[in-house]
Design a protein that fits this description.
The protein is α/β, with parallel strands linked by helices. The chain has a domain of 65 residues. Helix content is 35%, strand content 26%. The protein contains nine helices and ten strands. The strands form two sheets. Strands 6-7-8-3-9-10 form a six-stranded mixed sheet, with helices on both faces. A four-stranded antiparallel sheet has the order 2-1-4-5, with helices on one face. A hairpin with a 2-residue loop joins strand 4 and strand 5. The protein is globular and about 50 Å long.
Length: 231
């Protein structure tokens, strides 16, 4: 279980996260939903250990990880835009994190991860020969291949057109559920957030203003802004 406890992040004298608290249960998928500039991506980076905390604590199963280096947290982060390596094959990209961890039997694990996302046999192909949807699947396979205890997806479908996104929302949710992973998904799209997650956390101005299932938030919004944003 992930616990974010009253976290503040200050960058260049500007408070980006302000007293943020969030719990994510084992095998739960939580969508962080909010407008641009609300602090969603910074929250992911804080959990990943890529930005320092000005205040607060981040724990996994009750043990603090605030001082744990990013590579020792055993978290997977899929960046917006995928950040694939164009000079590598699909297999090279998916196996990158495995090689960094000095894992045995890399070829088998790469093939397994590609099968999870429906790209069996794509290993030898060049990344720049793939469609946008295929690149998204490769990025997801790379994130899942090391079997991280927490998966974080930052606007995973934001670069794709709406028709393709609708299909990939369903596929991505199925992959996460099949793997039983604990996950945080960042998005500004309400329909995408609802389809991908078990629960929503609505952000505004660097803080989480309300959490719950869509029907709970619609039934009792925290304020007028939440009601207008969520509808």
């Amino acid at each position: 279980m992930l616990s974010v406890d009253r976290v503040d992040v200050v960058i260049d004298s500007k408070r980006i996260l302000d007293d943020v608290s969030l719990d994510v249960a084992d095998s739960e998928i939580v969508a962080i939903l909010g407008p641009s500039g609300s602090g969603k991506s910074t929250l992911l980076r804080a959990v990943a250990g890529l930005v320092d905390l000005a205040h607060g604590d981040i724990r996994w199963d009750g043990a603090t990880i605030t001082s744990t280096p990013p590579h020792r947290r055993d978290f997977g982060l899929m960046f917006q835009g995928y950040a694939l390596f164009p000079h590598m094959t699909v297999a090279g990209n998916v196996g990158f994190g495995l090689r960094m961890g000095d894992t045995d039997d890399i070829d088998r694990k790469v093939g397994e991860a590609l099968s999870w996302v429906g790209l069996e046999g794509f290993g030898p192909r060049q990344v720049d020969s793939l469609s946008g949807g295929e690149q998204q699947r490769v990025a997801l396979a790379r994130t899942l291949a090391p079997r991280p205890r927490l998966v974080m997806l930052d606007e995973p479908l934001g670069a794709l057109d709406r028709n393709l996104r609708q299909q990939l929302v369903t596929d991505t949710r199925q992959v996460l559920e099949d793997r039983g992973v604990t996950a945080i998904v960042v998005t500004h799209d309400r329909e995408e957030a609802v389809a991908l997650s078990d629960r929503l956390a609505v952000m505004r101005g660097g803080t989480i203003v309300q959490t719950g299932r869509l029907e709970q938030i619609l039934g009792s919004p925290a304020d007028d802004w939440v009601e207008n944003f969520i509808t």
